[in-house]
Amino acid sequence: MALYILRRLLAVIPVMLVVAVFVFLLIRLGPGDPAAQLAGDAATAEDIQRIRERLGLHLPIHVQFITWFGNILQGDLGMSIANNRPVSSLILARLEPTLMLTLTTIIFVVLVAVPLGAIAAWNHGRWIDRAVMAFSVLGFSIPVFVLAYILIYVFAMWLGVAPVQGFVSPTDSLYRFFAHIALPVLSLSTIYIALVARITRATVVETLGEDYIRTAYSKGVRDRDILLKHALRNSWVPVVTVIGISIAALIGGVVVTESVYNIPGLGRLTVDAVLASDYPVIQGLILVFSFTYVLINLVVDITYAALDPRIRY
Amino acid sequence: MSITTRNWTAGLLAAVVAIPAANAAFVSSADAEEVVLRAVKHSALRVLDPIMTTAYMSRNHGYMIFDTLFALDENFEPQPQMVDTWEVSDDQLTWTFTLRDGLLFHDGELVTSDDVIASLRRWGERDAMGQELMRYTEEMNAVDDNTFEIVVSEPYGLMLESLGKPSSNVPFIMPQRLAETDSTEPIPEQIGSGPFVFVDEEFEPGAVAVYRKFEDYVPRDEEPSWMSGGKNVHVDRVEWVNIPDHGTALNSVISGEIDWMENPPWDLIAVAENAPNVVGRQLQPLGSQGMMRMNFLHPPLDDPKVRQAIMYAVEQESYMQALVGPPEYYEVCGAMFMCGTPLETDIGSAPLLEQDLDRARELLEESSYDGEPIVIMYPTDVITLSGYPPVTAQALEEAGFNVDLQATDWQTVVSRRASMDPPEEGGWHLFHTNWVGFDVANPIVSQGLVAGGREAAWFGWPDFPEFEELRRSFAAADGAEEQFAVAEQIQEQAYENVMYLPLGQYIEIAIFGDHLEGVLEGPAPIFWNIRKND
Amino acid sequence: MTTDVSFEAGARDERALSVWAATLRFLLRNRSVQIGGGLLVLMIAIALLAPLLWTVSPTRLDTAMRLRPPGPDAWMGTDPFGRDVYSRVIYGSRISLLVGLTVAMTAALVGTVLGILAGYIRWLDGILMRVMDGLMAIPAILLAIAMIAVLGAGIGSVIIAITVPEVPRVVRLVRSIVLSVREEPYVEAAVALGTPGHLVMVRHILPNTIAPLLVQGTYICAFAILIESILSFLGAGVPPTIPTWGNIMAEGRIYFQISPWNIFFPATFLALTILSVNVLGDGLRDTLDPRLQRSV
User: Fold this and answer.
1) What is the pLDDT of residues C196-218, one digit of tens each?
2) Which CATH superfamily is domain A94-312 in?
3) Closest CB from B20, B52, B206 relative to A272
4) Residue B94, beta-bridge partner list
5) Where in chain A is the domain with CATH 1.10.3720.10?
6) Same domain, yes or no, for B218 and B344?
7) Domain topology for C2-288
8) Which of A32, A93, A275 sits opposite B381 (nearest CB)?
9) How many Å lie between the alpha carbon of A294 and the closest alpha carbon of chain B?
10) Taking CB atoms and an 8 Å cutoff, what residues of chain B touch C155?
11) Residue B316 is part of which domain span?
12) Which residue from B290, B369, B428, C199 has the least number of CB within 10 angstroms?
């Protein structure tokens, strides 16, 4: 086991290296002159050249990469061009809202989707099953921003039961935190509820067909006990996997959700940085998101290996 | 699934279900003890240096934390602000200014003459009007801690107008150590002597900027009028919240989460005004002017006939409909120095006000135009600009031009418009932008009328030495009548050369909760004098 | 699986054709395939016939007619520039389907080639899969946004930007099939008999990838349509000079309260299209390969 964990940890290095090279090249080869943006309306060509030199943009590209990569290893992600602040401090300041939004969403998704999937499986082929599956296909097909606008319109504007926008830290007020996060979580989670419900259903259906369940039936074990003790107990495997996979997609949803609900998180920062061609921030964000994604999948894999004796490592 | 998960569900359910009972709870529970004014600005505050950039957000930030020597009042007259008394020598060459007593920077230091001189010098490197003043200035001397003098080489009529320039770049006064920063680099600290203190620790670029009242600020005794007069602060804290989605921002004003929104899309103003507790008001008196700017360096727009063809092909009203919409918020106006200013005249503007495609085609026929595509930069991310380019594109196509409408973002336009390369090699033919009325209100401040070519002119680089002479003679003109006569000449020639095309004049409405009292009008948003009632 | 048995039998004449026809008939019996496929065919028909269906040019401005509600002159209302939303939505179906189908086919093609190479050439496997791992570690939307920022906005760059993040998933799928098929006795036998590598690939391995690729391809198609609309909506996609559903919504979003049709109509078309592709995918998966049910 220890060897397996070590091997998986080492495997993170090449992945992150690929990400780093890719991100650097991609962004540095891009158009747009950050120096001219900084200089603003009344700048002369001379001003722009001075700024270029200050930012090191006049150096050869491989020198820029080595400097950049060396700095990253020391935790220095560079300076934001648009804001003239360290990228790391920008990212840290925006971490909490995104973390709270994704965590609440994941918890909400698991709480809703697993029972939904199980109920559907238990009623395999009946109308409940069909309804759940129909909802799941539907939920899969509605773009998150369309859903977000509908929710704002209905709950915030029409019924007036939820705030329109913003974020409140749970350490300030737990109540206001939930009030503000409710609509974003609903918008963001729909697609994942659809996904996780489908997978739970599929697994439970499969498990219910397994021999040992049939045996349990024939022994006269009660229905409810079979569902809870046997069928559901195995369903964590796909659920954990899906959480690992969908973290990446969830991040995409976060970008949209944070923009619509004005949550000052990493997603908003991403959109702002892209619109401002703020290269260092885009680079930093991709690195941080990718690193998080890789780490989560590492944890998922290890959990998987630790919990399921059938998986070889 | 155990007890903990059940609690989570219960908590979430309770939160979702119980909200209606306490709609106000998410507005103002944590800040009962402090009066906080929350405002949504037109864009995010990024560069914290109002001298380095002309960005209006940086200027607005400047008015919060810095103070000015003079400030414009509602009669367009510069009034003393930091300055107490001043005099001009009989030969009109030496100006002596004395500062008010007890002016303090936020770090507790007294404001001195050295601070003032360093600040004016830095401003004079960047700002067009500042550069003009510096051309006339022989020397600036500190007479004592509170008194300084400016010696000019010949009489300069715009001295007080320059020191009280209301919009970008504003000659803000900062501590000498900050003013000695290279003018292409942002100042390292936010220390001013203005009515608000910037709270650096709480600043999240792109999300929120926080100011608190400067307790040691000494306001003047006069009533406030535009940027002049007493700057009395009646709130503890001001938060500038950036909400990029206009609909979301508007709804938060209606729901009371936000007190003030700077310029909502015009079509939505009616929605806000229909809400019971929201009022809409024009705060920026002159309004703004749209601008189409052509590149004079490259064919075919180096040919005046082609530029004139464009002027005949377009008309102001279509632009204003596309940009603004409801007619009560815009005005078709041929005055380059804005309708409603002392220099208003419609001389030379007729071709722009009425579309004349026949005349446009005729001119195009006579010109050197050879069917090359006109490269139009189309910034799609700024709502107050994205209305123009499609209108131009359609009009030019109707007149017989080939058009290459290149969608991009505003930041790219900002960097690309600085390129003097030919359009097919990363340059451009034309772009659109907007100016606050004060920034085009006379021939000296108006960047679009500088005709000094590659060296001195604004992007597009028109090069007309005689026109430059004419423009200079405005600065030297004696009295309003003579100034107006020169301005008329300038505008007539500007239209003939198609220096730029004004696309119409529009006003911006701010919407705010009716619990705000004492909101002032002015060339820039004003946060002093406002009381927040319950 | 029906397909590989028939290929294994070496029947590449008219019998193979009839196998395909039989497969198709078999597929068409599935309810999901009927509904999803039918809806998709309708959408494709709209896209193909778009120039006949729109009432005015989708890019024609009429600033005096802006933000009109739906009515006899403009069936779905007009947008902030006074353009006809109905004509724009109809035009938008072309872009969405073009992007969706192109991305699915390109990703499947590139992914299959790379996947087979990785599964077959051992020294390449390590490098290629590390690169794929790296690509997969970057969230798809972020990667797409960054790539468009570099490539410049345009339909071509949007297609590339959406395809690249999808390729690794296909590579993994194909590679795993190659690895498992390679161990099958009949393939080992063929190799032992001296069948050249490329023939083994064409005869034994490619046919096995068709069913899973078809299923995966439909999901990629749906995902690509969704991502395209999100990119346009965020202002980082197809330039707004081209009416796509995402662009129509992006331009209408701030007027949501006073003219919801600018969001409502394109959103409905978008959701219906994605729905039809997803339903079709489910149907294909159920009929072609029940085992795939577990892998999303």
Assistant:
1) 877 877 777 788 888 888 888 99
2) MetI-like (1.10.3720.10)
3) B206
4) B151
5) 94-312
6) no
7) MetI-like fold (1.10.3720)
8) A275
9) 27
10) none
11) 288-506
12) C199
